[in-house]
Design brief:
This protein has 10 helices and 13 strands. The protein is α+β, with helices and mostly antiparallel strands. The protein folds into 2 domains: about 10-240, Hsp33 domain (3-Layer(bab) Sandwich); about 245-295, CBS domain Like (Alpha-Beta Complex), CATH 3.90.1280. Strands 7-6-3-4-5-11 form a 6-stranded mixed sheet, covered by helices on one side. β6 and β7 (about 135-140) form a beta hairpin. α9 (about 260-270) runs antiparallel to α10 (about 285-295).
């Protein structure tokens, strides 16, 4: 019945009424479907990227300033190889999977086999607060389903008990049916009663996308996941895919190749092309421009 309804992409931040639990939830159907429409992704690769994008947006909401950046990097021995996603506090995100074409048999639950597509490997979280050194932390992937790996990261690297759910569901025509996620964290003052209540509520949750197929908003998702809690919603923020690539930045990439290499490109190809890995935009640099560059070097 919700099939034809326009669903908005946004993220909410919330606190339990007793302020012992903080929570984030989002829905990102349009954002992930835009990747599908504008780029050539298989459902398995898009599910893996979509989950990571959702995680990065939820985690990015904990940054402090507008210019801070959060990066999630997943490196595995599966056919996807690498997933790289960057988000910020403004709800902007960009990301890609090294291999967008992965096709595998479904797993034993008859779901897309994201775990096998990623394989065994590592999750690296980079928080760049604009200081000299960014904060970098790497943990082993424990399930390669993304959500469990995020939970494990928070337990291991930040000693913060966290529950995370992420999902991407497709329609028969392979367009996005529902996608989003939640992140719930116990604050240091959380009491046993709250912890038990939350565990009980989470036990009843089998799939984020099952909830998102039924419910329209991140608020409803959070109310379902945190059943029995009074929730105070603090913020509502739009989320969108935003790439920061430009003609100038592409030129810098070519410049960094050095004089010899550029002369080689002129000789061999007569022009240069820089493809943005994040948004797939192509930038073409003519022979004249390349020669100008060589003269500047
Ligand atoms: Zn781009």
């Amino acid at each position: 019945m919700y099939q034809d309804k326009e669903r908005k992409d946004y993220l909410v931040r919330a606190l339990s009424a007793d302020k012992m639990i903080r929570a984030f939830a989002l829905r990102s159907d349009n954002l992930v479907d835009e990747i599908r429409r504008t780029r050539d992704y298989s459902p398995t690769s898009l599910a893996a990227l979509g989950r990571t994008i959702n995680a990065a947006l939820l985690m990015g909401d904990m940054l402090k300033n507008d210019d801070d950046l959060l990066t999630l990097q997943i490196n595995g021995d599966g056919p996807i190889r690498q997933i790289l996603v960057t988000s910020n506090l403004k709800g902007e995100v960009k990301g890609y999977a090294s291999n967008p074409y992965v096709i595998l048999e479904p797993n034993s639950n008859n779901h897309l086999n994201v775990s096998k597509a990623i394989g065994k490997g590592k999750l690296t979280v980079i928080k760049d607060y604009g200081l000299k050194e960014p904060y970098v932390s790497t943990v082993n992937l424990i399930s390669s389903e993304v959500a469990e790996d995020i939970t494990y990261y928070y337990a291991k690297s930040e000693q913060t008990p966290t529950a995370c759910g992420l999902g991407v569901a497709f329609n028969h025509d392979l367009s996005i049916k529902a996608t989003g996620g939640f992140l719930i964290q116990l604050l240091p003052n959380a009491n046993e009663e709250d912890i038990d209540k939350l565990e009980e509520s989470l036990k009843a949750i089998h799939s984020v996308t099952d909830i998102l197929k039924e419910k329209d908003t991140p608020e409803e998702l959070l109310k379902t996941v945190m059943k029995g809690f009074d929730i105070e919603f603090l913020e509502r923020k739009e989320v969108k895919f935003k790439c920061s690539c430009s003609y100038e930045k592409g030129l810098n990439t070519i410049r960094s190749l050095g004089k010899e290499e550029i002369l080689d490109i002129i000789k061999k190809d007569g022009q240069a092309e820089v493809d943005c890995a994040f948004c797939n935009k192509k930038y073409i640099y003519s022979k004249d421009e390349l020669e100008k560059l060589v003269n500047e070097l």
